[in-house]
């Protein structure tokens, strides 16, 4: 099967380059268009169990700033790998859900995501990668990152 639309989900860490290199290679082999996605968790998910309502105005500003910074970094990665800013998107919410939903919305043929498999229940695959795999609307390529 030839892939035509590839969604590359990265977390903006140094490991993103490993994922992007694999995605770019796969894209080149298939003549595919690459799109980038990163997901910012809402502050109420980051601090689950804590009452952040009293900080709602500050929390909203923190989230907006996090999205702005994520977008800047994502566009920089896109530029480095020849992916136009128009195909760089910052989602907000649960990473696994947002990745699956974005892939479905753009009718992606493949999702490329990194995994280091060091997280609790997702020890074998990684919690986000595992969440993406279960219910993905297309093929998923996991890239083992160090």
CATH superfamily: HUPs
Q: Strands of the largest sheet, in order across it?
A: 3-2-1-4-5
SSE string: EHEHHEHEHE
N-C termini distance: 29 Å
Write down the CATH topology: Rossmann fold
CATH class: Alpha Beta
Approximate shape:
globular
Portion of residues within helices:
40-55%
Structural class, by secondary structure, is alpha/beta
Give me the Rg, rounded: 15 Å
Task: Name the poorly predicted regions.
Answer: 119-125
Percentage of residues in strands = 15-25%
Instruction: Please identify the oligomeric state.
Output: single chain
Overall mean confidence score, pLDDT: 86
Beta-strand segment tally: 5
What is the count of distinct domains? 1
How many H/I helical runs? 5
Would you mind describing this structure in some detail?
This protein has one domain (5-144): 3-Layer(aba) Sandwich (Rossmann fold). The protein is built from five helices and five strands, in the order βαβααβαβαβ. It has a five-stranded parallel β-sheet, with helices on both faces. The model is unreliable at 119-125 (pLDDT under 50). It is 42% helix and 21% strand. It has helices spanning 16-30, 43-46, 56-80, 95-105, 127-133; strands at residues 5-9, 33-40, 88-92, 110-115, 139-144. The protein starts with a strand and ends with a strand. With 146 residues, it is α/β, with parallel strands linked by helices. Strand 4, helix 5 and strand 5 form a beta-alpha-beta unit. Helix 4 runs parallel beside helix 5 (127-133).
